[in-house]
Every structure is written in structure tokens, then in C-alpha cells.
Amino acid sequence: MRPAARRLDRALVVLPSVTLGGTEQQTAVLARAMAEARLEVTLAMEPALRPDFAALPGAASELRSVTGPFGWQAGATAADNIAAQAAALAPLLQGLRPDLVILPLPWPGHGFGLLQALAAAGQRTLVIQHLAPQIADPVPEAAAPVLATLAAAPIRWAAVSAPVAARAAAFFGLPPAAVAVVPNGVPVPPADPAAREAARAGRRRRLGLPAAAPLVAFAGRLELQKGADLLPEIAARLHDACGATLAALGEGALRWSLEASPAARRGGPLRLLGHVPDVADWLLAADVLLLPSRYEGCPLVFLEAAARRCPVVASAAALECLGPAARDLAAIAASGGVADLTDQTILRLKDTAAVRPAVEAAYRHAVAEDEAAMLRRTFSLMRAALA
């Protein structure tokens, strides 16, 4: 007879993050869902992260949280990071005695100290890998003893896409089948033509554009990973070809260099809008969402655009998570370069009828893989982790 699974009453979510992104947004959604399922949830994170995390869409601000040196610091050595994370988590595990720990990893090597403490405590854990690039960072020498403990630890593994799962398994020395795939999902709002028209008119008014002006959106961190360095030249080419404006929603390390580009000068075709609270309305307003990323896990902004029937032009790397189906759901610029991304965008702006099949297919994908489906699969893995 199989032993009964342990009850899941208390859960601890530990974030090794030092900034906010898709990993943290989905973690906020999961934590809220666990609280709604009557679990006692504690969030552990860096002190500087707490106020912004509480403000994320879908976050439950009333959840208990503790702060400490849980994040992986870029300026510290691997040995120091491992020691700090392990020292912060070990007493928390002893004090809380959680039934299950959730460890969302924004990067494969950013949780070694947390994994060390979890393995040492024999703590049942679900690790969720959100991103793993094609060229992996080398495993630090200080992390080798941690890797050696993982196979025997009571840890379940998941990832947001099949490519990420395969790379995570290779990085941690796990059998390929050991990492389950749970794709990201977002809520799909009901169609609202009036809201779309209001968003289209309002966002163009904000930019000082005519009501029928072509508008392309970029939403994400202004970093090389997201392809933000390509935006000025793409914006200039789009404007020359069809008078389009490119609105960039987000902040990041490249902000200063983008501001210095001719395309971003006052009234230019590249508008740097920073963080905005109404990304959904921009996706309703835009004629195209541009995704020029060099690597992604399972990008939320694609799903949010698909849920609002906004056409998408993406690099192949941006939608790697979809496999061969990506070409049915978006226009793929195979090279990921400026010319290819620009040409694909111009085609979508000039021939709106041609994009409808992909838009509808993407919408059906967003409905089938919505937030509720993601949460059902995650809760199933959480129960399996207790068996």
C-alpha cells in the first residue's frame, strides 16, 4: 500500500531574486493562489524587493513575508553567495517547519546556497526554473558539493518550457525526465471592442499621434537579453517605411544609451515610456507587439498580447518555448536581426488581414494555457512533492 501523502498546510516561497521580472510576477500569482486555497504562506525575499513585489499584478499584499540575504548578488563570489543564502535559510526552515518550500529560480545558478540548506534539512521542495540560456554559465567550484547532494534530496523540479527543462536538467545533473514542464499562463479577459477602441485612441493621444497612426509596442526590461539595443534602428526604419511609432514600456540598464539615440529625441519614432501600470491597454492599442529577445523562458508579454488579439513579431529565440508551433502563432524573424524584425513588422502593419489566422491561433493558445491551467499543474506537482 502506498503511504499517504503529507498534508500541505504551511508553504514557504523563497526568492533568490534581486530584481523584478516575469519570474517574480508568476511567483506572486502562485503565492496568492496558495493563500486562496487556505494555505499558510510565507514569502522570503531581499528587503529591497518587498515593496515592489507586493505591488505586482496578482500579488496578495496581506501575505506574511520575511526579508534577509536570500538573493544571489552579482558582485559577490559564488562561495560568499552560497554561504549567505544557506545561513539565511537554515534557521528559517527550523523556525517555520514548512510542509513544502517553493523555490522559483530566475537563473539556474542563483539558488545554490538555498538548495544547500534545503538538501541538508531534508526539506520537501518544488524548484521552478524560469530561464536557462542555450549557453549555460559554468558551475562554480564552490557549488560542486551542492550538486552532489541534489539527487538524494526530496526535491521535485519543474520548468516553464521544454527547452528550459532540458537545460536545467543538464545544469543540475538530473535525468532529462526529472524536470516537469508547466508553461506560464495569464488570465484571458473577455473581448471588449469598446475598451479596445478607447485604448487605441487614448494611447495615441498620449503620444501626440493621429488616431490612425501605426503603433508598435515593446514591453520588457531595457536590456540586451530583451533585444532592447535594437529598438532605435528598428524605430527609425519603421518610421521611414510606414510612419510608425515604437513605444517602449519598461526600464533597464540600456535606458541612458537609448535616450541618447536620434530616434528617441523629442517627437522621434522611439518613445521611452518607462514602467507603466497599464501594459494591457497598450497591448489593446498597439498594431503589433515586438519581441526581439535573445533568450526567454516562456514570455508573459506574448501570452498577454495573445489574450488581447494583438499581433506579435518575434525573434526565434523569444518564442523558442512554443517549438514548431511558434510560426503558426506569430511572425518569426528567424535571424533576430534589425532588418528581419523590421521587415516582418512592416508586413503586419500593411496587411492586417493576413495576420488574422495567427492572431486567432495565438488567442486559442492563450485560452488553453491560461493562468488557471498553470495553477492546476503547479498544485499537482506540489502534491506530488509531498508524496
What does this structure look like?
The chain is α/β, with parallel strands linked by helices. The mean pLDDT is 94. The chain has a seven-stranded parallel sheet with strand order 3-2-1-4-5-6-7, sandwiched between helices. Strands 10-9-8-11-12-13 form a six-stranded parallel sheet, sandwiched between helices. The chain has two domains: 10-185 and 371-386, Rossmann fold; 193-368, Glycogen Phosphorylase B (Rossmann fold, 3-Layer(aba) Sandwich). Helix 8 (231-242) packs parallel to helix 13. It is built from 15 helices and 13 strands.
What key phrases describe this protein's structure?
387 residues, alpha/beta, Rossmann fold, 2 domains, 6-stranded parallel β-sheet, 15 helices, 41% helix
Mean pLDDT equals 94
Series of H and E elements: EHEHEHEHEHEHEHEHEHEHEHEHEHHH
Assembly of the depicted chains: single chain
Task: Compute the number of helices.
Answer: 15
Silhouette: globular
- C-alpha Rg (nearest Å): 22 Å
CATH architecture label of the largest domain: 3-Layer(aba) Sandwich
β-sheet strand percentage: 15-25%
Task: Please list the strands of the largest sheet in the order they lie side by side.
Answer: 3-2-1-4-5-6-7
Helix content: 40-55%
Count every beta strand, where a strand is a DSSP E run of 2 or more residues. 13
Number of domains: 2
Largest sheet: 7 strands, parallel
User: N-to-C terminal Cα separation, in Å?
Assistant: 13 Å
In CATH terms, the superfamily of the largest domain is Glycogen Phosphorylase B
